[in-house]
Design goal:
alpha+beta, 9 strands, about 25% helix, binds adenosine-2'-monophosphate, hydrolase, Cyclic_Pdiesterase
Length: about 170
């Protein structure tokens, strides 16, 4: 069974902005490699081929509306021990997308967390302190979403995009 999640995947310039910010943090912990930066929309976990086929089919019916996130805050979450970018603003399209994905997962008997959706980009894992620096917000325009597999690679976790759905509308 594959370990899957839905995510927003950044364009190169967003990846670069995030990586530059991570470099400035000079934080303890393990920086997320630039290729792995993303916003998790919904973590599915271990998913059977049948469940994967069903969620893929259903996700393709969701309108992949454009959405914009303004990542303007650096948050330290003690329990998962991560430093992440969080957004003071994101629009209804994203909340709706998350809600649709939760419904799709539940229809397939996939247990998902009931916590409120807090879009974030994890920058550093195994962090143990708050970092307070000024930075320019990362404005992330998204025109779609992905189904991603989390794999154990030779150099740690690797993410492989399995499906990508994009909007034809301008962001
Ligand atoms: P993150 O989004 O906070 O970085 C793949 O594992 C992605 O799904 C990671 O980016 C991870 O956290 C997110 N995720 C959410 N819930 C998870 C869970 N219960 N186990 C592993 N990863 C989870």
């Amino acid at each position: 069974m594959k370990r899957l999640f839905f995510a927003l995947w950044p364009e190169l310039h967003i990846r670069q902005q995030c990586a530059t910010l991570t470099g400035k943090l000079n934080s303890s912990g393990k920086p997320v490699t630039p290729a792995n930066l993303h916003v998790t929309l919904l973590f599915l976990g271990r998913t059977s081929p049948e469940q994967q086929a069903a969620v893929t089919r259903e996700a393709s019916q969701i309108p992949a509306s454009p959405t914009t996130l303004k990542f303007d805050h650096l948050s330290f979450w003690k329990k998962p021990a991560v430093l992440c970018l969080t957004a003071s603003q994101f629009d209804q399209n994203l909340s709706k997308l998350h809600e649709n994905l939760v419904n799709i997962a539940k229809q397939q008997g996939i247990a998902v967390e009931d916590r409120p959706f807090t879009p974030h980009v994890t920058l550093v894992k195994k962090a143990y302190s708050v970092i307070d620096i000024g930075f320019s917000p990362v404005i992330w325009h998204s025109d779609g979403f992905c189904l991603v597999e989390s794999c154990a690679g030779a150099n740690g976790i690797e993410y492989r995009i399995i499906e990508r759905w994009t909007t034809t509308l301008p962001p």
